[in-house]
UniProtKB/TrEMBL annotation:
<comment type="subunit">
    <text>Homodimer.</text>
</comment>
<keyword id="KW-0312">Gluconeogenesis</keyword>
<feature type="active site" description="Proton donor/acceptor">
    <location>
        <position position="88"/>
    </location>
</feature>
<dbReference type="Pfam" id="PF00300">
    <property type="entry name" value="His_Phos_1"/>
</dbReference>
<keyword id="KW-0413">Isomerase</keyword>
<dbReference type="GO" id="GO:0006094">
    <property type="term" value="P:gluconeogenesis"/>
</dbReference>
<keyword id="KW-0324">Glycolysis</keyword>
<feature type="binding site">
    <location>
        <begin position="115"/>
        <end position="116"/>
    </location>
    <ligand>
        <name>substrate</name>
    </ligand>
</feature>
<comment type="function">
    <text>Catalyzes the interconversion of 2-phosphoglycerate and 3-phosphoglycerate.</text>
</comment>
<feature type="binding site">
    <location>
        <begin position="22"/>
        <end position="23"/>
    </location>
    <ligand>
        <name>substrate</name>
    </ligand>
</feature>
<feature type="binding site">
    <location>
        <begin position="88"/>
        <end position="91"/>
    </location>
    <ligand>
        <name>substrate</name>
    </ligand>
</feature>
<dbReference type="InterPro" id="IPR001345">
    <property type="entry name" value="PG/BPGM_mutase_AS"/>
</dbReference>
<feature type="binding site">
    <location>
        <begin position="9"/>
        <end position="16"/>
    </location>
    <ligand>
        <name>substrate</name>
    </ligand>
</feature>
<dbReference type="InterPro" id="IPR013078">
    <property type="entry name" value="His_Pase_superF_clade-1"/>
</dbReference>
<protein>
    <recommendedName>
        <fullName>2,3-bisphosphoglycerate-dependent phosphoglycerate mutase</fullName>
        <ecNumber>5.4.2.11</ecNumber>
    </recommendedName>
</protein>
<dbReference type="GO" id="GO:0004619">
    <property type="term" value="F:phosphoglycerate mutase activity"/>
</dbReference>
<dbReference type="GO" id="GO:0006096">
    <property type="term" value="P:glycolytic process"/>
</dbReference>
Length: 206
C-alpha cells in the first residue's frame, strides 16, 4: 500500500513580495506565485502521483495554490477539506506590517525572536508551538487516517503550519525546527510505514 502524503507551501503571495507579516490576513498570489503553484503541479504529475483527497487552510493563497496544482495534475474534482487548523501562524499585532518597519519599532533582536523562536508569541499572536498545538491533533485525527488507508493526500498550506507538521513527522527539536526553511511552491513527499513513521522523505525541486 502506498501511504502517500505531499506537503506544499503556497506560491508567493502579494505580501511575501512586499515583505509584510501576513499571518491570517487573506491575500492572493502574485503572478510568480501562480507560476510556482503550476510548476509544483507539473512536478507532481511528472512523478505519476495519484491523490484521493486534499486538505488546505481557510486562506485563499493556499486554496488557490491547491486548485492550480490539481489543474496541472489533471485531478480536479477531488474532495477538498478547508480548515483554519492549517492556517498560517497568527502574527497578531505584526500582521500587515513591513518587516523592516517592525524592526525599526521594536528592534532587530526582538523581531528576530518573534519570528524565529519556538515558544515566544508576538503581541496578540501565536508562537510556532501554538501553531503546532492546532496542527498536530488535526493531522492525527483528520489527515493521517486518509494517508494510512492509502488514499494519497495532498496538503497546500503555509510556512509555519507546515513547519509544525514537519517537526512532528521528522522528529525535529524546537531548535531544529526554527531553522527549517520552506521555499514557496516546493513539494515535499512523504511515504509512511504501517506504524505511521516516515519511510521516505523527498523534496521535489521544481
Amino acid at each position: 500500500m502506498d501511504r502517500l502524503l505531499v506537503l506544499v507551501r503556497h506560491g508567493q503571495s502579494e505580501w511575501n513580495l512586499k515583505n509584510l507579516f501576513t499571518g491570517w490576513r487573506d491575500v492572493g498570489l502574485t503572478d510568480q506565485g501562480v507560476i510556482e503553484a503550476k510548476a509544483a503541479g507539473q512536478k507532481l504529475k511528472g512523478e505519476n502521483l495519484t491523490f484521493g483527497t486534499c486538505f488546505t487552510s481557510a486562506l485563499v493563497r493556499a486554496q488557490r495554490t491547491l486548485d492550480l496544482m490539481l489543474e496541472e495534475l489533471g485531478q480536479t474534482g477531488l474532495p477538498i477539506t478547508r480548515d483554519e487548523a492549517l492556517n498560517e501562524r497568527d502574527y497578531g499585532d505584526l500582521s500587515g506590517l513591513n518587516k523592516d518597519d517592525a524592526r525599526a519599532k521594536w528592534g532587530e533582536e526582538q523581531v528576530h525572536i518573534w519570528r524565529r523562536s519556538y515558544a515566544t508569541q508576538p503581541p496578540g499572536g501565536e508562537s510556532l508551538r501554538d501553531t503546532g498545538a492546532r496542527v498536530w491533533p488535526y493531522y492525527i485525527h483528520r489527515i493521517q487516517p486518509h494517508v494510512m488507508r492509502g488514499e494519497g493526500v495532498l496538503i497546500a498550506a503555509h510556512g509555519n503550519s507546515l513547519r509544525a507538521l514537519i517537526m512532528a513527522l521528522d522528529g525535529l527539536t524546537p531548535d531544529e525546527v526554527v531553522k527549517l526553511e520552506l521555499p514557496t511552491g516546493l513539494p515535499i513527499l512523504y511515504r509512511l510505514n504501517e506504524d505511521t513513521s516516515v519511510a521516505e522523505r523527498r523534496e521535489l525541486a521544481v
